[in-house]
Design goal:
Order of helices and strands: HEHEEHEEEHEH
Largest sheet: 4 strands, antiparallel
Helix content: 25-40%
Oligomer: single chain
Low-confidence stretches: 83-88, 144-167
Number of helices: 5
Strand content: 25-35%
Distance between the termini: 32 Å
Region (Disordered): 136-169
Strand order of the largest sheet: 4-5-6-7
Radius of gyration: 21 Å
Structural class: alpha+beta
Biased composition (Polar residues): 158-169
Number of strands: 7
């Protein structure tokens, strides 16, 4: 159930908020001077005006939306979910596992993470940080985690093969 919740939260807007009247730098014509460090602006508002204790790691992404009016604009912010916070760190774990020959390859496709344990093994979908821990401990993947290239259309296989070659696998 936790795995399903993590998967749904990845695409939900529950962790997104829109902040209005955020002061941004503008030129003489009222156009926003980019880049705007929206993460720092939102963190400052949350900590100083709302009394929260947010770190930069609590914000997944943020950006200006719309146009500035009188030097103020709207900013949309996606906060990290506390439940999936560890899921967002495979970028640190998987390269080390490949370097240590614990996995053969890893790549992303459509926002999902895939791993191959050996050159001739099937690819496995990583649904949570626990899946990475299972690979480290040598636990075999369940059949519904494994997907072979034959499960996909020929066009998707071509895209996947080109992505793998671009990632050095």
């Amino acid at each position: 159930m936790d795995s399903r919740l993590e998967s749904q939260e990845q695409y939900s807007r529950r962790t997104s908020l829109r902040f209005h009247n955020i002061q941004v730098p503008v030129d003489g014509h009222g156009k926003i001077l980019h880049p705007v460090n929206t993460d720092d602006k939102i963190r400052s508002i949350c900590n100083n005006q709302l009394g929260l204790n947010l770190s930069i790691n609590d914000i997944s992404r943020s950006h200006v939306i719309g146009k500035a009016k009188y030097g103020k604009c709207q900013v949309i912010v996606r906060f990290m979910s506390y439940r999936t916070r560890d899921m967002n760190r495979p970028d640190k774990k998987l390269p080390q596992m490949k370097y240590n020959n614990q996995i053969y390859a890893y790549w992303t496709s459509d926002g999902r993470i895939f791993v191959k344990r050996a050159e001739n093994s099937r690819k496995e979908l990583i649904n949570s940080f626990g899946d990475i821990s299972d690979i480290e401990r040598g636990i075999t993947a369940s059949p519904n985690q494994q997907r072979s290239n034959t499960d996909r259309s020929p066009e998707a296989n071509e895209v996947n093969n080109s992505q793998q070659s671009n990632n050095g696998e």
